[in-house]
Amino acid sequence: MKMKKSLLALCLSAGLLASIPAVSLADVNIVPQDISAAPAIPASALQQLQWTPIDQSKTQSTDLSIAGQRLSAGDITGPVAAYSVPANIGELNITLTSEVKNNGVFAPNVLVLDQNLTPAAYFPSSYFTYQEPGVMSADRLEGVIKLTPALGQQKVYLLVFTTNKDTQQTTKMLDPAKAYAKGTGNAVPDIPDPIARHTTEGLLKVKVKTSSSSSILVGPLFGSSGPGPVTVGNTAAPTTTYVAPAAVATTATVAATAPAAPAKKSEPVLSDTETYFNQAIKDAVAKGDVDKALKLLDEAERLGSTSARKTFISSVKGKG
Length: 320
Fold this sequence. Notes:
The protein has helices at residues 25-28, 43-47, 64-67, 164-167, 176-184, 271-286, 290-302, 308-316; strands spanning 8-9, 13-15, 52-53, 59-63, 76-86, 91-99, 104-106, 109-113, 119-123, 129-131, 140-147, 155-163, 170-172, 195-199, 203-211, 231-232, 253-255. It is an alpha+beta fold and 320 residues long. The protein has two domains: 8-255, Jelly Rolls (Sandwich); 271-316, no CATH class. The strands form four sheets. Strands 2, 4, 6, 10, 11, 15 and 17 form a seven-stranded antiparallel beta sheet that branches. Strands 3-5-12-8-9 form a five-stranded mixed beta sheet. A three-stranded mixed beta sheet has the order 7-14-13, with no helix packed on it. It is elongated, with a radius of gyration of 23 Å. The N and C termini lie far apart (67 Å).
């Protein structure tokens, strides 16, 4: 796909959450401006998509099984998500999250397009790495995209999709019992970690923030040998600018900024995990630490345990 000169100077850097050990930029080894690996998508197909505007004050949630759109191009499979982001608010820090549900996860790829729907950058699925669950977050694939739109750009478009190649792969997660043991400082049990298969549908969350910090400048400006940001598209002011059609009401649902309380899992907990929590409950009761036993009970039931409560009651009664 031939890149033309444009007003959109995208200075991009790979960023992942600093609070959790993750794959480093060097390990990912991705050059976002190299769009040669991105699927070739006809302009007419892009113009037919309904681009959902993102409000930076909110987290945009999209259930692809309900709000996904169809796009037939290259190796793309399943529904896609299409977003429009204001490009006149400064540097953009865009966090894309794909949550694990029922041991399945959507492996996202992101194609960044300028205001005229010209491809400008490509982030393959390998950019979005596994992040362990936290107090208010689930197992997920996640990455932070940093973009600096050039002066004059009004919108940046993000196309999120997965491929047939992605669906043939899996993601290794952290067993909940291990996560709990690590969080409480207990010995980590030697049990196998669950595997999440890659699916064609899933739950995406997008959060846009502005940043005053500088992005890494990558590549020459206007083909010169001097340093500067890569410039993609037409340098002349466009006579017409693409206007995305308004998204229908069902295109996406917007999540409140305050996260909801974690819901109890509907799928049964792994037997090793159940055994770990039951034994931990018995040990806590035996030591007279009922508060710890209650916390273990609550965590076990949140993960889907059906025997933890019975174990707690029998242990308290001296039958455990």
